[in-house]
Amino acid sequence: MKYKKVKKLKGDVIYSGDKYKEKSWVYSGIVKDHFFHPRNVLLDDTYYKADGIGVAGSPACGDMMIVWIKVDKKNQKIKECKWRTFGCASAIASTSMMSVMVTENGGMDIKKAMNLKPQQILERLGGLPDRKFHCSVLGDIALREAVKDYLSKKSEKNIKNAKRKKTIKK
Amino acid sequence: MPKEKKQSKNNGIYILKEKIWETDDIVTLKFFPIKDKIFSFIPGQFVNVYFLDDRCGGQGKPYSISSIPSDNFLNITVKKIGKFSGALHNLKIGEKIKTSDPQGYFYPEDQMKDIVFLAGAIGITPFFSVISAYFKQGVNNRNLILFYSNKIEKDAVFFKELNELAKTWKKFKIINILTKQKEKNYSDKNKEFQRLNVKILKKYLKNLNNKHYFICGSIGFVNDLWKELKNSKVKEDNIKVESFY
User: Fold this and answer.
1) Residue B106's closest chain A neighbor by CA?
2) pTM more than 0.90
3) Considering the domain boundaries, does residue A7 fall inside one?
4) Distance of residue B225 Cα from the nearest chain A Cα, in angstroms
5) Number of domains observed in the structure of chain A
6) Once rounded to an integer, what is the mean pLDDT over residues B231-245?
7) Which of A12, A91, B92, B242 is deepest in the core (most CB within 10 A)?
8) Degrees (nearest 5) of the Cα angle A98, A104, A105?
9) Is this prediction's ipTM beyond 0.95?
10) What is the pLDDT of residues B20-61, one digit of tens each?
């Protein structure tokens, strides 16, 4: 689905094809598209082998996000990003967009992914009302935790390998 | 779902020992751990704060740490804006709270040498921790410049401390942005009386490139400056943001 950028209102980019285009507080067409058709959702993670897992939010607060990533070991780029949330429409749409952004064009470098900002996701989504901004941060927090998890597992593995090599030499 | 991370040694329970009123609606809460030492953290990180009763429905809220790691206490500086912050303002000396382990990545990394902090009002809290820690450590291989935006001077938290620091420490410079100040002294070199924007940044930084930017404040403040920097061709990787909401 393609949208044409037509107007800016208080930082929100409004897209044509959206019947509410004159009102800055409504969801953009892209937000609605990602909410109704979320990409890369993982409903059952029983057999999913992720390289890194990250969790953000807390069920007590109402919003909860989990992100799984698979990383290409050769170039340290994210090749798969799956997620599941107990969150609102904005959290769903923004995390869906985030999962697209980190896996498109051959995948995002993990260093870049660590610095992915909600602002970048919102820009691609065509904006969100300010009062829904906090819903969009869950995904990138969970993503950062997933990358951190991957890096710590990787360094643990390296230490183990180094120890194994030492014992073989002895 | 993965298992939750292990809590720090002291179970994250802290007792309020002191309340320091910074302005009419901003208070610094000084907590001490009830057991052991305070967790280790990197200046710039935040903790999720929880009440031990169901005062706010068991919900937690993130607050940047405004103290430094070598302190034996935990400071959070809170502006009264809603129900949760209101409850924190009403916290009595001797009351306990629970915190998560420190979280977040909003801090300068080793390779960052020219650092620009853009603080919108209460968004100063993580920067105050970073700047104070660097000063205490005697860091002299980084240049720090803080653009500190407030409506009026009276609203600015840590204003005196930061300006004193800038006088004594050559590696740190502060530009005070006062958007609604009535008495305007235009001869003051390090003060601006308009909204913080890229023009002001260019005036003081000359070249926007090869610097690392940290933006912290309200959603509008952060979004606007992020956009302006991006439009000025500052690399995305050189910008870090934290929005308070």
Assistant:
1) A115
2) no
3) no
4) 11
5) 1
6) 91
7) A91
8) 145
9) no
10) 999 999 999 999 999 888 899 999 999 999 999 888 777 788
